[in-house]
Amino acid sequence: MTQWHGGKGSTQRPKSIADEEYAQRWDAIFGKDQPENKEKPTPEITMCEDSECPLKNKCYRYIAIPSGFQSYFVGSPKSMDGCRYFLRIEQENYTALNPKEQESDS
To answer: Is the distance from CB of 45 to CB of 59 less than 8 angstroms?
Structure first.
């Protein structure tokens, strides 16, 4: 009778890289030791890029900082009656919050 060795896969395969490099790659893939994002993420809204809109500096859809996978309106959502998608923001200094305005000023 043969001696039982624990079954298939019971021993660890030999590693082709050092433990430290393995740990670094693990962290890179699964996000350990990454700095936290201090900014609030943009809620999942459709944003607006209509730079000609008279409400743009008061609208959250225009001023919000976009996320990595941000959706935008195709064309302008405004109509003759205004914009039914307008989201008023509470801040007083709208253009200071808007990176699009700062880029166009330079």
So the answer is: no
Q: Tell me the two tokens of residue 61.
A: 């859809």
DSSP string across 25-80: HHHHHH-TTPPP--SPPPPS-EE---TT-TTGGGBHHHHSPP-TT-EE-SS---BT
Token pair for residue 41?
């993420």
Residue-range definition of the domain harbouring residue 64? 46-105
Q: Is residue 72 part of a domain?
A: yes
Q: 68-72: long-range contacts (C-beta < 8 A, 24 or more apart)?
A: 70/42, 71/45, 71/46, 71/47, 72/46, 72/47, 72/48
Residue 32 belongs to some domain of the structure: no
What's the confidence (pLDDT) of residue 93? 44
Q: What's the pTM value of the predicted model, to 2 decimals? A: 0.47
Q: Cβ distance 89 to 60 under 8 Å? A: yes
